[in-house]
Amino acid sequence: MSDEPSVARWSFSFWRKAEATPPQESPIVENGTGSSIAVPNGNAQGAVGAAHRNGAALPNGTTEIPQRSLIPPFESAEMRTLAESLSRDIIRGSPDVTWESIKGLENAKRLLKEAVVMPIKYPKYFKGLLSPWKGILLFGPPGTGKTMLAKAVATECKTTFFNISASSIVSKWRGDSEKLVKVLFELARHHAPSTIFLDEIDAIISQRGESRSEHEASRRLKTELLIQMDGLTKTDELVFVLAATNLPWELDAAMLRRLEKRILVPLPEPEARRAMFEDLLPPLPDGADLPHDLLVERTEGYSGSDIRLVCKEAAMQPLRRLMVTLEAKQELVPEDELPKVGPIFPDDIEIALRNTRPSAHLLAHRYEKFNMEYGSHSVN
């Protein structure tokens, strides 16, 4: 082997090394005013929202955005390699989810706008004691729209969106998990304003010391995440941590303290369920009205995901009838001659309600109790 030192990362093949990926040039994205900013490949939209925050006014009234590198300067090539991996896998463009596409959840929307959207739109007012909350927790039953709310925040603010799960920051190499967490927050600061979305955060930072089988690497990862989140509150950079969980009572107490806003995302109320059925189900034949009142009454305790499954099951009934007809024919019908799927009848909706049961109503009382003890409530 050569005596010259070389920075490398071990690959999965035995006795082989994969050379560090050479830095690649970031594409330049126009912001509509003649200026540009460097962003990750395929993620042009994420930089547009931050463009106006970094430029200098020109005599002709336009704004010149200095080119921002994809990777900030790191002290070692190893950290840069980790940053390149995170940038390829995590940085996203605008999720393209609007507040209007989320039915109901008015209280959660109001709290999120107050905690994240308004500080970015009106930074003048959020200083000193009114500095924005840097950690927000969305908790509630599964299928109620926590992830969609996080994406709506990123779309509304046009921030760089880091979509993080346990697999993103957990490594089999000793010490790499803590480095990945550190690099993640460095990237978020570099691309500020940015949103770090930690989905299913209970899988990453459950209560410490609860299990004797907890590995040392897991404790180091949790400690580094707590340290990095604590550092966010001491800076003025617009980096927000948005976490979501179905099991908020399993989170570590130190993490709950850092997630200053804790917002319940409950099961949909009757008005929201009615809006979902109106949006998802097509009209009945002969101009008949859908039995909305019956649907709302029969879906008490259903999550938004459950209601979508009810509508999907109802839409499958006419398709099943058509499939029986097509399968009875001896010859295959050409695609351009296939008949249209028939309309949905009230009996189809009744069958769908019988075949689709709620999946998230059993622990509703426990979420309410946690919300009373730790949750944030809107002030009218």
TrEMBL record:
The keyword Isomerase applies. One of its GO terms (molecular function) is isomerase activity. Residues 132-269 form the AAA+ ATPase domain. It comes from the Eukaryota. Keywords: ATP-binding, Cytoplasm, Cytoskeleton, Isomerase, Microtubule, Nucleotide-binding. One of its GO terms (cellular component) is spindle pole. Its main location: cytoplasm. It is found in: Cytoplasm, Cytoskeleton, Spindle pole. PANTHER family: AAA DOMAIN-CONTAINING (PTHR23074), KATANIN P60 ATPASE-CONTAINING SUBUNIT A-LIKE 2 (PTHR23074:SF78). This is AAA+ ATPase domain-containing protein.
